Amino acid sequence: QSEFTMENQSNIISFKLQSAKIEKSLINEENYLEAQIFDISTSIGVAVYNTEKLIGVFLEIEYLQSEKMLVNAKISCHFEFTEETWKNMLDIDQSNIIIPKDFFGHLVGLTLGTMRGVLISKTEGTVFSTFVLPIIETSELIKEDGKFSILENNG
Question: Is this prediction's pTM over 0.70?
Fold first, then answer.
């Protein structure tokens, strides 16, 4: 169990990484043109499962060169919360979870670190093995509290 204390607040968020999964991993070495720049695009998704008290953070990274895909990877990290923390994150009508901005950035940062390891592993032995995912400032990605609808997970 980990704890995250909100800056300037007494709220302690108790959680743990419940699981991590590689959702997609595609590598196209034939699209690579040496000595040409490439772009990195990111997308973040969130799923909230009330029964299990889980928040899934989905991160997709794509390396593109001349609009052709070089590397495309998607992972998910699922974080489990204590009963008390979960209740504190529910909105008034209990149909949404509110993830405070700083903590949301923390979850995204943990997921980015996991992605970095996945990319190192998946690109080993390819021309992309030296393409290390750069440090991404989560405060640039997460500008406000996250408000997400609760899903019931039926398996």
Answer: yes
Place of tokens 């440090």: 135
| CA–CA distance, 148 with 105 (Å, rounded to integer) | 15
C-alpha pair distances (Å), 57 with each of 23, 47, 80, 104, 121: 12, 7, 11, 9, 20
Please list the alpha-helical segments (H only) found in the chain: 83-89, 101-123, 138-141
* pLDDT per residue rounded down to tens, the chain (155 residues): 676 766 556 678 999 999 999 999 999 999 999 888 999 999 999 999 999 999 999 999 999 999 999 999 999 999 999 999 999 999 888 889 999 999 999 999 999 999 999 999 999 999 999 888 888 888 888 999 999 998 765 44
Q: How far apart are CA 1 and CA 106, in angstroms?
A: 15
